[in-house]
Design goal:
Length: 464
């Protein structure tokens, strides 16, 4: 049981450590490259500086202590030799004076001098009047005479060594700090050298994603970063060529589609419409000649169905390719389409033109705007169940603005292109492609319960 408890605790500890490692890893990966590089430089500087200061402090401290002991030993030996000569001459009373004299001549070296005989009895002693510090700061050096009769204990000042080592350490710390700041500055400079091209590539990648295929990355060096910039430029050139080919093909497809629409509309008008008109005339003649009431009623019903079919064929021909767009221009075509659209579906459709005038626009622009309005109105009623729709065309100095909004149920327009593609609602995507091909911009703004707004901004040539 205890083993199971210990195993459970260990597993919890390992899970906690694993979670901590994952959080630290996520934190490190989320830090910008510049911060990582400068953090590494700062950490290495602090680590090396601290190790260097500690090693120098320790080595220099031991070196100075060794020098102090050696110097103190020589000085103590000289004092002991004087004391030995005085002792042999019988003037032992002068030993204390000799010690005081030696202490007075070297107040910075000695804290005390104590002369002992062979048995350890103090013969003479001298101490400084001031406190030389704690015992931890006093180093004792012992000098013994040749015959071993006298022994001199000398207390050496250790605080002087500490002061010198502290002074040297402070100077080295300042130098290390300056070197560390220089290292950080160099790291920041190197980071800018490497990070700036990467940031530029990120921004250029976003620009290419937005459709700006002419974006070029500056090549500043022949290193790996420069090679990456060259590869990026080659990629954008290839993408631009493919996009140009795609747009050319799309123009051809749209042009072919419009030509086919025009042909079908002409066929419906010239052949199917004429045939239905002839049938309606024949039915009217038969209805007038017939004497049987039941037959006349039946002929009248067939005639009405033919007239309804003729109207539907006419509407279909107009929807495929409105002749009024080719004959009198965009303003009249949009106005007529809004009126017929509202009458046919029983919704209120309001058309407003601002400074549009009667001057004809390029045929491609007129057709694009007409298709934008046509698709926006259809979607507003079919998908948004709108009962009121507004169409506004405004011509400015450099472009034509087409706005269509409704009071339908709306939708979340965030990432609407992806939703339309997934839901097979390709009408708006096709309109966006049309607007893009003429150099314009297209956007959809909608919220659930607040209707939908479709905006197309198309540039116009200066001569238009």
């Amino acid at each position: 049981m205890n083993g199971a408890m210990i195993g459970g605790v260990d597993s919890r500890n390992w899970r906690w450590l694993g979670g901590l490692g994952q959080r630290l890893n996520a934190l490190l990966l989320g830090v910008p490259v510049s911060v990582k590089v400068m953090g590494i430089a700062l950490g290495v500087t602090l680590l090396l500086g601290s190790g260097m200061l500690w090693q120098i402090h320790r080595t220099w401290h031991l070196h100075l202590l060794g020098g102090l002991r050696e110097e103190g030993g020589r000085a103590a030996a000289q004092v002991l030799n004087h004391c030995v000569r005085l002792s042999r001459s019988g003037t032992t009373n002068s030993l204390a004076e000799e010690l005081n004299h030696a202490l007075g001549e070297s107040p910075d070296d000695f804290v005390y001098l104590s002369l002992e005989d062979r048995g350890g009895t103090v013969v003479a002693e001298a101490r400084t009047s001031e406190k030389g510090g704690s015992r931890s700061r006093i180093l004792e050096q012992v000098a013994v005479s040749e015959d071993g009769a006298l022994r001199l204990r000398a207390g050496l000042r250790g605080d002087r060594v500490d002061q010198e080592v502290s002074w040297l350490t402070r100077r080295l710390a300042r130098v290390t700090g300056v070197i560390g700041l220089a290292g950080l500055a160099a790291a920041w400079w190197l980071t800018r050298i490497f990070a700036q091209p990467i940031e530029e590539l990120v921004n250029l990648t976003r620009a290419v994603k937005a459709g700006h295929y002419t974006a070029k990355a500056p090549v500043r060096a022949n290193d790996e970063v420069g090679e990456l910039a060259r590869a990026f430029n080659e990629m954008t050139e290839a993408v631009a060529e493919k996009e140009a080919a795609r747009q050319h093909l799309l123009r051809q497809v749209i042009r072919a589609g419009e030509e086919e629409r025009k042909r079908i509309a002409r066929e419906l008008h010239d052949h199917t419409g004429q045939a239905l008109t002839s049938q309606i005339a024949a039915l009217s003649a038969l209805e007038n000649r017939s004497r049987e009431e039941a037959l006349r009623v039946r002929l009248a019903e067939i005639r009405r169905q033919a007239e309804q079919t003729l109207a539907e064929v006419h509407d279909l021909a107009v929807a495929l390719r409105p002749s009024v767009l080719d004959d009198v221009g965009l303003k009249a075509a949009i106005g007529r389409h809004c009126r017929l659209f509202g009458e046919r579906l029983g919704v209120k459709t309001i058309f407003t033109d601002l400074d549009l005038g009667d001057q004809r626009l390029p045929a491609e622009v007129e057709l694009t705007v007409y298709r934008v309005v046509q698709e926006a109105l259809t979607n507003g009623v079919r998908h948004g169940r709108a009962e009121r729709l507004h169409v506004v065309l405004q011509r400015g100095r450099t472009g034509l603005l087409a706005v269509v909004w409704d009071n339908g149920q709306g939708f979340d327009s965030h990432d609407w292109q992806k939703r339309c593609a997934e839901g097979n609602h390709l009408g708006l995507l096709g309109i966006e492609e049309r607007v893009t091909l003429v150099g314009g911009s297209f956007c959809v703004d909608s919220q659930p319960g607040k209707g939908t707004t479709v905006i197309a901004d198309i540039p116009l040539p200066e001569a238009s």
